[in-house]
Specification:
Elements lengths: L1 H6 L5 H12 L7 H12 L3 H14 L8 E6 L6 E7 L2 H12 L5 E7 L1 E8 L4 E7 L2 H14 L6 E8 L1
Antiparallel strand pairs: 1-2, 1-3, 4-5, 4-6
Length: 164
Amino acid sequence: MRYAVAVLGGLAPAVIGLSLALVVAPARASNYESCQNQCDTVWGTNGFQNGSCMSQCQNNSGHGASQSYGAIAYGPTSGRWGESYHWGTKANATRAALKSCASNDCRVVTWFDRECGALATDRAKGAYGYDSGATVRQAEASALRYCKSSGGKACKVLAHSCSF
């Protein structure tokens, strides 16, 4: 939500909240794909920008009722990333992360079931690392370690997500 306020030039939080409510409300009566398309229309296809909207779509459409898969996709050339969480199947989590990443070079780098995943990058060196773990802290620490072992000097966590 903080990012949306910055992108929209400081519009009042009430206006942004109303926008989210209008986008997310159809998910209760419709399927996930319809809600996801509305999120894409309002917030764009970048996973960070529409992450809250997407999570509402997933929660309101019953995704993840019996399982809880998530995934993180990354495009090393474009620098784009996408995430998904609370999906009932690994395949659906993979598709959602790739759609959220929205670049031809994106591929799923990690997926997780009832745990967390993280992606760390050093774009200047072209290095990145990823992993999953029982907690965000564990996943991030491991992703940073793998990023550094692949040649990164100034690795930073780019994305993390949990699916319980």
